[in-house]
Amino acid sequence: MKKDLRIAAINDLSGASRCSLTTAIPIISALGINCCVMPTALLSNHTGYDNYFFEDCTNQMEQFALNWKKMGIRFDCIYSGFLGCEKQIEIVGDFIRDFKEEHTKVVIDPVMGDNGEIYSTYTDKMCNEMKSLVAVADIVTPNLTEACTLCGMDYVGEHPDDAILELICRRICELGAKSVVITGCKDHHSVSNIVYENGKTVKYSSELIPKYFTGTGDTFASLISGLITIGKSVFEATDFATKFIHKCATYSYAIGQSVNEGIACERFLGLLNKEIIY
Ligand code: PXL
Fold first, then answer.
1. Which of 16, 145, 205, 260 is the most buried (most CB within 10 A)?
2. Any idea what the Cα angle at residue 76 is, between residues 3 and 7, rounded to 5°?
3. Are 160 and 243 in contact (CB under 8 A)?
4. Taking the CB of residue 38, how many other CB atoms lie within 10 A of it?
């Protein structure tokens, strides 16, 4: 009998949305893993809506870490997503130093921007600090905007060729990451996730759905975190996640979900349960 597996998921909690922790919890749980959450902020709903309530949780993060240490809790994976300020990046760095064991995987989703633009809340200093988390990551899952920022390049545009993508991945690994998955690279008809590890690059593509649902990157990073925790390679995990997200996005598009409503993964969670063969 394999032991209980546990992931620390550090991300914001947007109550009525499918993103960050509200997608990490069902995805990771359906893979048979205990998802322990550390909220970085509390929101009524994500910031793509006209109105939302927001409360920063920096102080609470420190209290969570302190009490988890006292409990003696251990993690098989540490997965971090949206971080709101320099202090939060520092807290996550400390958390990794305090809780990472030999076997613990570290997945950093460097949520910093999209479509060639860095989010307005993200300062240059934060972009630089993020590199210190990338340095201790097993897997980093940036989109193209974030990937370019991490390696100090100007945005390469929507359709970079394979040689440029490989160069970007190599540069991110030079920061210290073991592997990189550049997510959501769109072409005219397809969307691809590019995996780079130990000099090997593989592109996993699926048909482009003509709507970009909010939180898709969070669902992807949650799948990668869960799948590597149950023993899949980053290549196997990306192959599975690409197909799973395509299924959810196809369904969400067919039922007319708005982009703000996110991808509806609920009725596909049973497929994740079938992956539990450990
Ligand atoms: O990654 C999607 C997301 C997560 N969390 C918050 C957001 C968004 C997208 O708008 O606003 C708070």
1. 145
2. 105
3. no
4. 22
Q: Is the CB of 217 under 6 A from ligand 1?
A: yes
pLDDT for the residue numbered 187: 87
Instruction: Give the Cα separation of 119 and 217 in Å (integer).
Output: 15
Helix (H, G, I), strand (E, B) or coil at 41: strand
Angle at 82 between CA 42 and CA 186, to 5 degrees: 130
**Mutational pocket test of ligand 1: of 46, 57, 145, the residue with most ligand atoms within 8 Å of the beta carbon:** 46
Over residues 245-267, mean pLDDT: 97
Per-residue pLDDT, averaged over 88-94, amounts to: 98
Rg of the chain over all Cα atoms, to the nearest angstrom: 17
Using a 10 angstrom Cβ sphere, with 0-12 exposed, 13-18 middle and 19 or more buried, the burial of residue 53 is exposed
Helix axes 124-134, 86-99, angle to 10 degrees: 10
pLDDT at 184 over 80: yes
- 82 CB under 6 A from ligand 1? yes
Kindly tell me if the per-residue pLDDT of 267 is higher than 70: yes
Q: Which of 274 and 252 is assigned the larger pLDDT?
A: 252
Note the pTM of the prediction, 2 decimals.
0.97
Q: What is the pLDDT of residue 278?
A: 53
Amino acid 171 reads: R
Mutate to test the pocket of ligand 1, among 19, 22, 79 (most ligand atoms within 8 A of CB): 19
CB-hemisphere CA count at 13 Å for 18? 21
What is each CA distance from 141 to 46, 112, 225, 266, in whole angstroms?
20, 11, 10, 23
